[in-house]
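pasting for the record
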Amino acid sequence: MIRRIVTTAALSLSLVAPFAAHASIFGRSAETPSSTTSNAPKGKMIKLTLKNRTASPMSIFVNDQPVTLAANSEQQIKAAEGSDVLDADHTTVRLHVTGALSGNTVSFR
């Protein structure tokens, strides 16, 4: 009798355990990735102009997309509010995008 109860319980747990490992009482576990990618811009999109005031071209990354600014030129971009504009080697933050930058020009020297 006890052997049958233990066998039934072990079989039941082995069927439920894989699903319970990924369950969360809040709907999403910290271990499971969300349905959106982490590179997707979140929040409001900010339109601004980047101006390169140097004599050489400048490579930067906006929303993880490469952008090349020609020497002494400007380019309009859209970036997610709260994102960073990084230099070519992804180590230096050149600009942190905020709502206050909307419609403005940012110059790099």
